């Protein structure tokens, strides 16, 4: 209890709610970071993803991910980002394949988010990556291979320069751009990805492109 001005005491706890159960925390703790932290085990190729995509996703995003009316294109748009009408897709824009996995797992299908199993999400991610020509038809996506996929726009971002976006250790976020560092050895890849993801901060600043404000995402 703390003393209040004018007498009386204020409770230090309000005795509402209850402690979350481990399984409740686990159900919400689904974030997947670029260096595969948080990816659950599972594996599929685009072969399984094709049918799933047709039945669960094509009505909105088009049969081949080309988008439809007001629904976003997921495929295509490569090279459009510096033009007058940038088309932001998995292939043209997204820097990490693991984020595609995270997004689908967390938010899609739009009317029933959270209903896909890990294997289904690996299959759908593989389908989109294959549709972009990033992986082959037989390339299996699993918790080990997905973080190793190098996305076409991986180097198309710069660090958030705002001084108040500090790192956890309190220092400034500015560090060398990933491409200025020596290429990582395979064993070091995971750490490198984590580091560079932190460089980007929450807001991603996009090089030399003005985005239509409705499409800028945190
Ligand atoms: C009912 C329509 C609908 C269906 C079905 C649907 N989506 Fe979406 N999808 C959306 C909408 C709307 C957005 C944009 C949501 C937002 O920005 O908040 C979106 C966004 C996305 C994005 C991010 C696009 C970007 O670059 O911003 C991905 C990836 C995606 N959907 C994948 C899928 C997959 C995979 C499926 C099938 C499992 C699916 N969607 C099913 C409506 C749909």
Report what the structure shows.
This protein has a single domain (31-212), classed as Cytochrome c-like domain (Cytochrome Bc1 Complex, Chain D, domain 2, Orthogonal Bundle), CATH 1.10.760. It is mainly alpha-helical and 218 residues long. Helices cover 27% and strands 6% of the residues. The protein has a two-stranded antiparallel ribbon with strand order 1-2. A two-stranded antiparallel sheet has the order 3-4. Helix 4 packs across helix 5. It binds heme C. Residues 56-57, 59-61, 71-72, 74, 88-90, 100, 103-104, 108-111, 124 line the site of heme C (HEC).
Topology at a glance:
Elements: E1 2-3, E2 9-10, H1 22-28, E3 43-44, H2 46-56, H3 58-61, H4 97-107, H5 118-131, E4 141-142, E5 157-158, H6 189-200, E6 205-206
Antiparallel strand pairs: 1-2, 3-4, 5-6
The structure holds heme C.
For the largest beta-sheet, the strand count, sense and barrel status come to: 2 strands, antiparallel
The string of secondary-structure elements, in order, is: EEHEHHHHEEHE
Ligand kinds: heme C
Structural domain tally: 1
Q: Please give the oligomerization state of what you see.
A: single chain
* Inertia-based shape: extended
CATH superfamily: Cytochrome c-like domain
Examine the coordinates and then state which fold CATH places here, giving the name of the CATH topology: Cytochrome Bc1 Complex, Chain D, domain 2
| Major sheet: arrangement of strands | 1-2
Rg for CA atoms: 21 Å
Determine the number of helices (DSSP H or I, runs of at least 4 residues). 6
CATH architecture: Orthogonal Bundle
How many angstroms does the end-to-end distance come to? Answer: 39 Å
Provide mean pLDDT, rounded: 80
Number of strands: 6
Strand content: 5-15%
Determine the structural class based on helices, strands and strand pairing: mainly alpha
User: What's the CATH first level?
Assistant: Mainly Alpha
The low-pLDDT segments are: 169-218
Helix content: 25-40%
